[in-house]
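Hi R.,

Here's the chain you asked about this morning:
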Amino acid sequence: MKKLILMAAVMLSVLPAAAQEQASKFDASYIQVWGQAEKEITPDEFYLSVTINEKDSKGKISIQTQERAMLDALKKLGVDTQKQLRVVDMSSEYFKKGNALAWKQFQLKLNTPEQVAQVFGSLNNLGISNVSMEKVTHSQLDQYKNEVRIAAMKSAQTNAQTLAGAIGQKAGKCFYIYDSNNDVVPYYGNVFMARSMKAAVANDAAEAAGEAAGLDFKTIKLKYSIQAKFVLE
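And the predicted structure, written out as tokens:
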């Protein structure tokens, strides 16, 4: 038992010494750099929030009637309501009978600015004015994120090689990578101009398509940084 304890104590004393020796070897000759990369993506997914409410007609038009009219209008615009439209919330009064006024909220997914303009115009003509832009994104956003992060790492490697070459050395093995981008939110900027949308909803559905060019959906900007350390050779 004493022999085992002695061996363990010897091993514990050797490990810190080995780690310190390895660290000092790198500390004596390494280069630390940052690499950055960015990419702008044109959005291809537009999420609208649509709420139909009996209060808008003072209870004269039921939720069911408004919903049927909305579905017909969306189908005429080529929207697959089975896949692109879903209910996200509704009032408990929706299930009651009598004079209770109710509301129902939907999320509508569209793929082009033209469709967005057409939907706003068409729903506005039906008296459904509670429509707002919920989210603008891209269907392959995660893939693009990884591509930009890889580019940032390659940028760090290039920077290390450039700086090392300036002093007649080479950047060798990378022994440290710090990726601080896990919680980075893509920069969307001012993705939507209210002025242009007001112009679109002021027209009917046919004219709204022509106004789509006025919808200022800006690109999604991805920007990432990577810190890395390379051994100098």
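Helices lie at 2-28, 63-76, 81-84, 113-125, 141-166, 194-201, 205-211.

Let me know if you need anything else.
M.
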